[in-house]
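Example for tutorial group B:
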């Protein structure tokens, strides 16, 4: 029983951390694509998936949520392309410890950055 409570508490910490980090990077948490992106990141983290293609990760999330892979990819892409760049530039180094570059503003690259961030913070 205590293990279950600890697991839920741990999942909440991860969820809160991602929500705060997404806000700091300029993502809109009210956007469905941001929700899918968070679920995708959590799925990869909790399954300890390090070496997987982004498309395969989307397929796994598609099966988990019973939503088409196209809808997930499209909504995530739209959400990430809607990032507030001024906020991202201001906070990027504080979050990821690297200088901001437009190169990183893609679903695949941000997934990798956030997974590395989670592994460094919570492992």
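The residue assignment follows.
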């Amino acid at each position: 029983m205590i293990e279950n409570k600890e697991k839920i508490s741990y999942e909440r910490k991860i969820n809160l951390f991602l929500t705060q980090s997404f806000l700091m990077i300029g993502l809109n948490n009210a956007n469905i694509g941001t929700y899918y992106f968070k679920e995708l990141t959590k799925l990869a983290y909790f399954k300890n998936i390090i070496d997987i293609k982004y498309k395969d990760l989307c397929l796994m999330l598609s099966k988990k949520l019973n939503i088409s892979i196209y809808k997930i990819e499209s909504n995530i892409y739209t959400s990430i392309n809607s990032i507030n760049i001024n906020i991202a530039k201001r906070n990027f180094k504080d979050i990821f410890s690297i200088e901001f570059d437009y190169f990183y503003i893609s679903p695949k690259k941000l997934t990798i950055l956030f997974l590395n961030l989670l592994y460094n913070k919570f492992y």
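The chain has six helices and no strands. Compare this with the pattern of hydrophobic and polar residues in the output above.
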